[in-house]
UniProtKB/TrEMBL annotation:
Signal peptide: none annotated. This is B box-type domain-containing protein. Residues 12-57, 66-103 form the B box-type domain. PROSITE patterns: NHL, ZF_BBOX. It comes from Magallana gigas. Keywords: Metal-binding, Repeat, Zinc, Zinc-finger. NHL repeats lie at residues 475-518. InterPro entries: 6-blade_b-propeller_TolB-like, NHL_repeat, TRIM45/56/19-like, Znf_B-box. Pfam families: zf-B_box. GO terms for molecular function: zinc ion binding.
Length: 559
């Protein structure tokens, strides 16, 4: 047979009808997995011992046995259940009112889905993962290179300081030698004078004794009175030997003078992937609206006592927020004004401030108990206990750390401390010339971290907002808008949004100041009364706690 000798046809030549061995049979039985010619295919269908499905050879493999009815073949496809089914399945109630398609249509539909998924995997998802893997490798290489450069710079700074210290040590030792030399010369000179005088006195004593023992009276007449000369004693030296007084080395000052490392910033970025060329990939920039809109007003009056006063608010998510009032409770509300949960402080004192951490846990400060506490479920865990200091306000950071404002017991000092767990990472108290950054008199000082990692502190007594960078270095102070308000700037709670804008509650002027990240005044929000607490949700909606009204306003101020 010449066909069997053609290598291009050899793969096809081995296909023969299972019964009559006719070459290149056009049919295939999916049930029995055999090749059939046209004649044998018709005869094969007459076999009633099982349900055969004979299909064109190109469509082989499209038939499967029903999972529920093992003797039946799946000739249909349920779009809702996304499974092949048999005719008996259709008659059952399980697929009642479902869209049932021919199995070939279902397979074709699934084939299109698979092809699209394959295309998306090959063209979009896989390259993105390769890009991420490449970025990780590059970051690791850059990490090693940067670490070597940092260590080299640190070593050089250390060597420079060692040289300076060695120079100081050498100079001080030289000064000691010079003082020793000067004093020794004075002592030697006086010693020589005293030795000479002692020699003269000794000789005079010997001469006087000789005169007294001699019978030669001429010696008496020859005697010269010298006691008056010897009575003129040389001045007695009073020597105050030099002492070395080492200065107490302040670690914080040493670190500041030596140098500092900027914080490691690991910022996850979204790797967008879409096969739709018309997908919206526009920037997420949100601009301020001309007239802020009040979306909701939520009354939080607990009615537990007559003198309710709303102190602060902190968003748990876009539908829930925590508040604290002038009692010992912390309360969780939804936007309908329904009380979802309430918790009492561990100590029984009222909470000084509340915040929600990056992981969604509630954290609060207890000024009188000197503690910072985290609420996990219904359990309250004390994470920081202070000695000599009292915690004021608190905020979570983007890295999961806690930023705590605290006052010294004597009321003379205020500082901001960054904690990782219960360990102190950074203390911020002074500017570059050792002047206090914050007023020392006790008053509420609110704090937050901006999206550019700046730390912003609202200082009521100083009528100012002080902003430092993540290393604690002073950036700027905001003391009010360019135009004069009715009352003195009275900053309370402070928060930031996704655009790095800083929002400040101005209690006495019944408004909220909006600044850019560099402290430039942008505009007011004036639809609030006695605002004390502020926070924003994930969509940049502002929540403003009106203290006297015990009311939280949800405000849309950007879009």
């Amino acid at each position: 047979n010449c066909l069997t000798m053609d290598p291009k046809r050899s793969a096809q030549d081995v296909l023969r009808c299972h019964f009559c061995e006719t070459l290149v049979p056009p049919l295939y039985c999916d049930t029995c997995s055999i090749h059939l010619c046209t004649t044998c295919g018709g005869e094969h269908l007459l076999d009633e011992s099982t349900e055969h499905r004979v299909v064109p050879f190109k469509k082989r493999g499209y038939t499967s046995k029903c999972q529920k009815h093992s003797l039946k073949l799946c000739e249909l496809y349920c779009a809702q259940c996304d499974i092949p089914i048999c005719a008996q399945c259709v008659s059952s109630k399980e697929h009642h009112l479902h869209d049932v398609l021919d199995i070939l249509s279902g397979i074709e539909s699934k084939r299109n889905v698979v092809q699209n998924d394959l295309l998306e995997l090959e063209k979009c998802i896989y390259p993105k993962y390769e890009e991420i893997a490449s970025d990780i490798h590059l970051h690791k290489v850059n990490l090693n290179d940067n670490s070597q450069k940092l260590k080299t710079a640190i070593d050089k700074q250390g060597e420079d300081l060692h040289r300076e210290i060695n120079s100081i040590v050498t100079k001080l030792k030289s000064d000691v030698d010079e003082m020793d030399s000067t004093l020794l010369a004075d002592l030697n000179r006086q010693e020589d004078e005293i030795t000479c005088t002692i020699s003269k006195i000794t000789q005079s004593i010997a001469d006087l004794k000789n005169s007294l023992n001699s019978k030669d009276v001429s010696l008496f007449f020859a005697y010269k009175f010298r006691n008056a000369e010897f009575k003129k004693m040389p001045p007695k030296l009073t020597v105050a030997l030099p002492k070395f007084t080492p200065h107490m080395l302040n670690k914080e000052e040493i670190y500041q003078q030596f140098g500092s490392l900027t914080a490691l910033l690991v910022k996850p970025e979204e790797y967008g992937c879409t096969m739709d060329p018309g997908a919206n990939t526009s920037s997420l920039n949100k601009t301020l609206v001309d007239v802020p809109q009040i979306i909701a007003e939520i009354n939080t009056d607990s009615q537990d006592f007559d003198d309710d006063f709303l102190c602060n608010v902190s968003c748990l998510d876009d539908q829930h927020f925590w508040i604290c009032q002038n009692d010992t409770m912390m309360r969780l509300y939804n936007l309908k004004g329904e009380l979802v949960k309430s918790l009492q402080t561990k100590s029984g004192y009222r909470p000084t401030d509340i915040a929600v951490t990056r992981s969604g846990d509630l954290v609060y400060t207890d000024y009188f108990d000197r503690t910072v506490n985290i609420v996990k479920g219904t359990h309250i865990q004390t994470v920081i206990e202070l000695q000599g200091w009292k915690p004021d306000c608190v905020s979570g950071s983007s890295t999961g750390d806690l930023l705590v404002v605290m006052d010294s017991d004597d009321g003379e000092q205020t500082k901001v401390v960054c904690y990782s767990g219960s360990s102190e990472k950074l203390s911020i108290q002074y500017n570059d010339i050792r002047q206090p950054l914050f007023s020392s008199r006790y008053n509420p000082k609110y704090i937050c971290e901006n999206r550019n990692l700046d730390i912003c502190v609202s200082d009521c007594y100083a009528s100012a907002v002080i902003v430092v960078n993540q290393a604690g270095t002073f950036r700027f102070t905001y003391t009010g808008p360019p135009s004069t308000t009715k009352e003195l700037f009275s900053p309370r709670s402070i928060t930031t949004d996704s655009q790095r804008r800083i929002l400040i509650a101005d209690l006495d002027n019944n408004c909220i100041h909006i600044l850019d990240q560099d402290g430039q005044f942008l505009r007011f929000i004036e639809s609030v009364i006695s605002p004390l607490g502020l926070c924003v949700d994930s969509k940049d909606n502002l929540y403003a706690a009106e203290g006297d009204k015990c009311r939280v306003k949800k405000i849309q101020y950007c879009k």
